[in-house]
Amino acid sequence: MVKANFEFFVVSGKVSKGYDSNGLADPFVRIGYISKKTGKTEFFLKTKSCKNTLIPEFQHKQDQELDTDDFDKIIIEMYDHDLIGKNDFIGKTTIESSTLSSLTKEGTLNRYYLFNENDKESVGQSTANVYLGLGKKD
Q1: Is 17 exposed, middle or buried, given 0-12, 13-18 or 19+ CB atoms closer than 10 A?
Q2: What is the helix, strand, coil percentage profile of the chain, to 5?
Q3: Phi and psi for 122 in degrees, rounded to 5?
């Protein structure tokens, strides 16, 4: 077991199309991993929903202790929040766990492109992106 502390900073994003009747979306982001021990997806971060926008400003910072031996990839997902019914899945991507092991205290800021393989209109195209800062904590 190798536990380490990381800082996750979900800065902002962009959604390629509207998911609501007004042509906009209410996006939020979840970050997690698939546990090698249980086989289940364990989400540890969820941003607030940004209302009526295609260019959300999440500004969500969170420190997280992770057992880096328990997963191979970090999962980033974006959804459109709905008051009635199920939230709409916008897209997802993964980050290899080796990315976390190479982090420094200064950290990195990257844009991650999200994809939705179930969206017939955007097969092979990014459905959204997220600017995510990652850093290693002491």
Answers
A1: middle
A2: 10, 55, 40
A3: -125, 30
Buried/exposed 19-49: b ≥16 CB within 10 Å, e otherwise: beeeebbbbbbbbbbbeeeeeeeeeebbbeb
- Three-state secondary-structure class, residue 122: helix
Cα 53 to Cα 128: distance, rounded to the nearest angstrom: 12
Please choose, from the candidates 129, 128, 134, 63, the residue with its C-alpha nearest in 3D space to the C-alpha of residue 97. Answer: 134
**Beta-bridge partner residues of 45:** 31
Count of C-beta atoms within a 10 Å radius of residue 115? 17
**pTM of the prediction?**
0.93
pLDDT in tens, 21-46: 999 999 999 999 999 999 999 999 99
Element (H, E) at 64: strand 57-67
3 CB contacts (<8 Å, ≥6 apart)?
A: 65, 66, 67, 68
